[in-house]
Each structure stands twice: as C-alpha cells, then as structure tokens.
Amino acid sequence: MKANRQTTLRSSVVLSGTGVHSGKPVKMILHPADASTGISFLRTNLSNGHDRLIEARHLSVSATALCTVIGEADSGCVATIEHLMSALAGLGIDNVCVEIDGPEVPILDGSAAEFVDAIEQAGVAQLAVPRKLIKVLQTVRVDMGKSFAELKPFDRGFRLDVEIDFDTPLIGRQRKIFDLSPAAYKREIARARTFGFMRDVEALWKAGFALGSSLDNTVAIGEDRIINPEGTRWPDEFVRHKVLDAVGDLALAGAPLLGEYRSYCGGHRLNFMMLEALFADRANYALVETLPRREAGHAELGAGIAVPAFSPTVR
C-alpha cells in the first residue's frame, strides 16, 4: 500500500459499549468515506428527531475537561472521541464516517486496541487521491501553568515526545519519544489504558464524570498500589496512554502532521491549545503533498512539495 495515497475502510464495522463518563450504552458504526472528506461523526438518536453531522476538526471542539468533545450539547455532540481518533490516525486512516447513536464513544477496555481490531476487521482501502500533510514550518509553543507544549519542524514524519510527572511513586516522571507508524502504534501505544486516581472518584461522580468507569476500562491508582488485579500492561503505561491521547487530539488538525510534538504534563486541553496556536498564523504551517519515488536519476522529494498554506476552515 502506498503511503502517499489517502485511505478509508473497505467495509463498515460495528462496535458497542458504554461511555466512560456518561455511563450510557452506545452503538457505533464506522463507515467507509470518500476521499478528502476526512473523519466525521454522524450523531443519531437525538431528542429533536434529527441527525447531526460533526466534522472531527479542532474548530468543532466544545470541551476538553477529562475528554475531548465535539459539537454542542443542545444540538448534538460526541464526547471522548480521542481513543477512536487515535486509532484512526495511528493506522493511517484518512476518511471515515462514524455513525453513533449516543453522546459518547464507547470506552471498551480504556485503550485503542479494540478500535484497532475493528479497523483491521473492516480492512483498509487505498484511494486514488494523494494524501496531504500539514507541515510545521516554525516552532509554536503554548504554556499552561507548569505544563507546556511545542510543535517543531521535523521532516521525517510525526514524532511525539511526551513527558508526565505525577507526585505518586506509582507513576512518577515518565517520558516517551515515539515516531508514529501503524506498526509501532499497534505495538507500543494502542493497548495503553486510561487511568485515574481513586481519591478523585467521588468528586468526578458528583460532577457527572466517570459514571461508566470500572476496573475493566481504567487503571485505578490507589494510595499505595494499582487497584487492578492484573496491574499495568507496561511499567510506563501511563505515559504511553498520554501519547495515545495526543495522537487522537492532534488528529483534529484535519490531516496528518509533519513535525515533532513535545509536551510536558499535558492533556486534552493543552493538545487543543496547541492546534489553536498552530492555525493562528499561516506562517506556522503549509499543506504538502507526499510524492512517490522519482525514476532513477531524479531526486526524491520525500517530504513532499509545499503549496500555499491553507485556512483550517477550508478543505
């Protein structure tokens, strides 16, 4: 399969489960989509009897508290999209329509592994349209308290350098540098689960969050031990999950990024702020098109050719 061509699914695939925050059952169908349509969510089963199509773009984000939400509560929204978006981006899927009959993507086992399995079950189809990338042209930085994030030029793909620092020895300071590719994503990132602290559970419930959380979908951190009987999947599963979230949140750029993302003590809010900062100035980025290898005797333009920078509101 040529990496310079757009992709979609070969067939539709169904997933069902429960929302980790809403606690509500939900059915979701991933459908193939036409070239250059990107990822969109078709929200069905709304109280007004209408369906709503929501583009998975940073301009559609309405909340970033504990999860990423697109759309609006009064007209239709979808929460906790980051794990599904991460799986799609991690496997290099450009165009999908996600039909969903509830307010939140199912949490499944708390990682992206079951989404990866579903995508592979559906199969990947290559389209005849070239893939476009968002090339970072200059360093962009955002700060939020002790946390910060940067996007920097990097011509060899999309690299993530994610660091976390928690005041519990059960996590501590962890850092993961990761070059995104489908094989590496499946091997190193997809199975990393979401996590939370037992001390926060009651406050989250009162605020309407974590109503569907359980040891089946969350790594629960107690005062002096991991509550899950099986423990963690890796010693650094926590930072791997932060990489997973960052891949999903940054996929809301609307096209794959060509650059390096560095974050320290970040989360959904900081990832979203990074996209806002990137698109705030056209000097920060350009749209590039990957090209196949030229015939012998000609130089290969591996990173693509630059075309005029584009507004994120226009395809």
Automatic annotation (TrEMBL):
GO terms for biological process: lipid A biosynthetic process. One of its GO terms (cellular component) is membrane. It is an enzyme of class 3 (hydrolase). Its cofactor is Zn(2+). Pfam families: LpxC. InterPro entries: Ribosomal_Su5_D2-typ_SF, UDP-acyl_GlcNac_deAcase, UDP-acyl_GlcNac_deAcase_C, UDP-acyl_N-AcGlcN_deAcase_N. Keywords: Hydrolase, Lipid A biosynthesis, Lipid biosynthesis, Lipid metabolism, Metal-binding, Zinc. Transmembrane segments: none annotated. Pathway: Glycolipid biosynthesis; lipid IV(A) biosynthesis; lipid IV(A) from (3R)-3-hydroxytetradecanoyl-[acyl-carrier-protein] and UDP-N-acetyl-alpha-D-glucosamine: step 2/6. Belongs to the LpxC family. Catalyzes the hydrolysis of UDP-3-O-myristoyl-N-acetylglucosamine to form UDP-3-O-myristoylglucosamine and acetate, the committed step in lipid A biosynthesis. This is UDP-3-O-acyl-N-acetylglucosamine deacetylase. It comes from Chelatococcus reniformis. The lineage of its organism: Bacteria, Pseudomonadati, Pseudomonadota, Alphaproteobacteria, Hyphomicrobiales.
